[in-house]
Amino acid sequence: HYYQFQVIMKPSPANSQELYLNSLKAIGLDPLDHDIRFVEDDWESPTLGAAGLGWEVWCDGMEVTQFTYFQQVGGMECSPVPVELTYGLERLAMFIQSVENVYDLDWDGVPKDQGGKVYGDIFLQSEKEFSTFNFERATTDVLFRHFHEAETECQMLLEAPAPLALPAYDQCMKASHIFNLLDARGVISVAERQRYIGRVRSLAVACCEAWVASGVTSGVASGVADKPKQDGANG
């Protein structure tokens, strides 16, 4: 479990790094008091047909943000290119609160000796139980069935004459999550893994095509340049 705060600016401003550094200062993390480094780290999600160029942002040696200029989403080229900033809230909070353990983060602003809660009080048990479920206890036969059901439902929702892109994307995300659980359980071979990535990617691409074809993007977030590239699971 962890929180992310995601900011997308489109088109990407010329001073995006400066804006980012100012945002750190605004939350109490002055770049002049810390070693802030932009470390090249291009991002890719093969299952979603998404990729971009960018950096990890390190603060005193620990990654706190992913900084990405998106080149492609759902297999489609982005034009203009947006920039996404993904802040790791717990890690930033650890610096701001000067704690070494994420589970010691102040949760409610009330001192511990007065009944206040820390991060561990809220999330530690959940972390333990879901880690056990994800890596040891999840029933793989059930997961395989759920993957097939989500895939089938997504495909059905995208059928003409009235595709429902958003509910279909929800099923695509469900399939992607189930794939990750199967991967965590170690029941997918290397060859099967590539096939599953390709299946999820096909769903994601189809959802994006349906969304663009709906015309809604003309008033919301237009900027797709080309049709999806059929370049396999790793594109």
Number of helical runs? 6
Strand content: 15-25%
H and E string: EHEEEEEEHHHHH
CATH architecture of the largest domain: 2-Layer Sandwich
Euclidean distance between termini CA atoms: 28 Å
**What's the CATH H-level homologous superfamily of the largest domain?**
Bira Bifunctional Protein, Domain 2
Structure description:
By secondary structure, the protein is α+β, with helices and mostly antiparallel strands. It folds into two domains: 4-98, BirA Bifunctional Protein, domain 2 (2-Layer Sandwich), CATH 3.30.930; 138-214, Class II aaRS and biotin synthetases, domain 2 (Methane Monooxygenase Hydroxylase, Chain G, domain 1, Up-down Bundle), CATH 1.20.58. It is 43% helix and 19% strand. It has helices spanning 16-26, 89-97, 119-137, 140-157, 165-184, 190-213, and strands at residues 4-9, 36-40, 43-45, 50-59, 62-73, 76-77, 83-88. Strands 1, 2, 3, 4, 5, 6 and 7 form a seven-stranded antiparallel β-sheet that branches. Helix 4 (140-157) runs antiparallel to helix 5 (165-184) and helix 5 (165-184) packs antiparallel against helix 6. The longest helix is centred in the C-terminal third of the chain and has 24 residues, at 190-213. It is globular and about 55 Å long.
